[in-house]
Amino acid sequence: MLSKTMQDALNKQVQMEAESSQAYLAMASWADIQPGLQGVAAFFYKQADEERMHMLKLMGFINERGGFAMVPPLEQPILTFRSLQSAFAEFLKHEIKVSNSINDIVHLSLSEKDYATHNFLQWYVTEQMEEERTARTLNEKLELIGEDKSGLYLFDRDIMAYRGGEK
């Protein structure tokens, strides 16, 4: 059985995952209308789907443990970006925020001796390590490319094959 404090913390994380999905959906839509960024758009559409699945997984856990998973209200995400680099900087910033939130809930689970929740959250800890690594690496690649059009072309072409360090 979840404590009220843990239920509230997990529901806050549900909201954060939903916000992540919305933010990446907005990034995908923005990239979709930029010339030559269809690979980036597909990458962010996939990221949006993954974040939604993270949200649903949390909701299932909350309900399974005797809590009540709340469907959160969402604010409008950022819709436009000055550049591809600024969109990916937001991606990294957002992933770091999610990691910090997960870490706070892990800490809470240990302080409450809620080992079932602690065990469940280990998947999210590992996932966030991968997400941050991906965001950092893609930001580093964009920094190397700068404004080089051929580099941006190759980045867009290769991004869908990129999976956490494989490329």
From TrEMBL:
InterPro entries: Ferritin (IPR001519), Ferritin-like (IPR012347), Ferritin-like_diiron (IPR009040), Ferritin-like_SF (IPR009078), Ferritin_DPS_dom (IPR008331), Ferritin_prok (IPR041719). Keywords: Cytoplasm, Iron, Iron storage, Metal-binding, Oxidoreductase. Its EC number is 1.16.3.2. It catalyses: 4 Fe(2+) + O2 + 6 H2O = 4 iron(III) oxide-hydroxide + 12 H(+). The keyword Repeat does not apply. It is an enzyme of class 1 (oxidoreductase). Residues 1-146 form the Ferritin-like diiron domain. Belongs to the ferritin family. Prokaryotic subfamily. Iron-storage protein. PANTHER family: BACTERIAL NON-HEME FERRITIN, FERRITIN. This is Ferritin. It comes from Flavihumibacter fluminis.
